[in-house]
Design a protein that fits this description.
The chain is mainly alpha-helical. It has 2 domains: 255 residues, no CATH class; 43 residues, no CATH class. The protein has 11 helices and 2 strands, in the order H-E-H-H-H-E-H-H-H-H-H-H-H. Helix 2 runs parallel beside helix 6 and helix 3 packs antiparallel against helix 6. The chain is elongated and about 80 Å long.
């Protein structure tokens, strides 16, 4: 198996490219697809396919509620958790900088989650357009003019036109976008990412059941969104399975990309402004840390011994103290 140290640079580079450069192109492509300018390829169907003969009954989980939960729901969890993490470390700080540091930490996590949502939407919509599988309610929504074409019931119809007048043009086009399930891919991705974040960020010893309870909420939401797509006759079971695989795969890759920058409260790294920073120290920061741990090298009354500079320990021994004190003033 590939080492995690090798997976991280690849995933990190892909994340930085999407977060900084490609997100505008992704949004533009989604807008063209949702508006109907980019139409599905138009795959055919069998005349005797009974799996397409269901009635359209709407969505238990609407598209609007799905976007609200997956886009805005995570920040309702991220913000209080980051507040608690910062409060336990910086209680005596001023209010303005304290709130700014909280928002900076929240934005780092939320931006990563939103970037993954964008990737999931692009991959899902691209698959829908390319494969163009009819939904279970396709015949009821489209009402294709295939009466004369279906003679024996086993013909595969490719050239057809929809004659339905009870549905809008966008609904008719959407009836040919079954594979994979967008509800499932978005909800599973968000649930996996938030479960990972909660497991990494929440370490509250006084509330043992808080973390598994919050993780269970997201898992149940993803399961509910996935199963209702089948019971609503909006997707086939293999569409839901493909959507869950897609969402889990994107979440796994994104977690590998941001695992070193989104740290738990047990870690104590310096705060970073750029969410695409990998957490490594610059030369100036490293020099400042060495100087602060070994003392002020510019002091006129002291010189640092070579043995102390080369030592990995920041604890000054008695012998080193004597060596420093015996040096005459410059």
């Amino acid at each position: 198996m590939m080492n995690s140290s090798r997976i991280y640079p690849v995933c990190r580079s892909a994340y930085v490219i999407v977060a900084r450069r490609l997100w505008k192109w992704f949004l533009g492509g989604l807008g063209l697809s949702y508006s109907g300018i980019i139409r599905p390829r138009g795959a055919g169907f069998y005349c005797n396919d009974t799996s397409l003969d269901h009635t359209y009954n709407g969505d238990t989980v609407s598209v609007a509620s799905l976007f609200i939960v997956c886009l805005l729901g995570p920040i309702l969890f991220i913000f209080p958790i980051e507040c608690v993490k910062k409060w336990t470390k910086e209680r005596n700080g001023t209010l303005g900088p304290f709130l700014y540091r909280i928002w900076r930490s929240c934005w780092k996590v939320w931006r990563a989650q939103l970037t993954g949502i964008l990737v999931v939407l692009v991959m899902t919509e691209f698959s829908k357009i390319l494969i163009s599988e009819p939904r279970p309610h396709f015949l009821d929504t489209c009402k294709p003019n295939v009466t004369q074409m279906c003679k024996t019931g086993n013909e595969y119809i490719v050239n057809f036109s929809c004659t339905s007048s009870n549905f809008t043009k966008s609904q008719i086009l959407d009836s040919q976008k079954s594979f994979p399930s967008g509800h499932t891919s978005m909800s599973v991705y968000t649930a996996v990412f938030m479960m990972w974040y909660l497991g990494r960020a929440v370490h509250w010893p006084y509330s043992f059941l808080m973390k598994p309870f919050l993780q269970l909420l997201w898992a149940c939401y993803a399961l509910f969104c996935s199963l209702t797509r089948i019971t609503d006759r909006r997707h086939h079971w293999w569409d839901v399975l493909a959507g869950a695989t897609l969402g889990f795969g994107v979440a796994f890759i994104l977690i590998q990309a941001v695992s070193r920058t989104i740290r738990s409260e047990r870690d104590s790294p310096p705060d970073e402004d750029d969410p695409t920073d990998d957490g490594s120290l610059s030369k100036d920061d490293l020099a400042m840390r060495i100087q602060s741990s070994t003392g002020n090298s510019n002091s006129p009354s002291k010189r640092l011994s070579v043995r102390r500079l080369l030592s990995n320990s920041s604890v000054t021994t008695i012998a080193e103290d004597r060596e420093i004190s015996d040096v005459p003033n410059a």
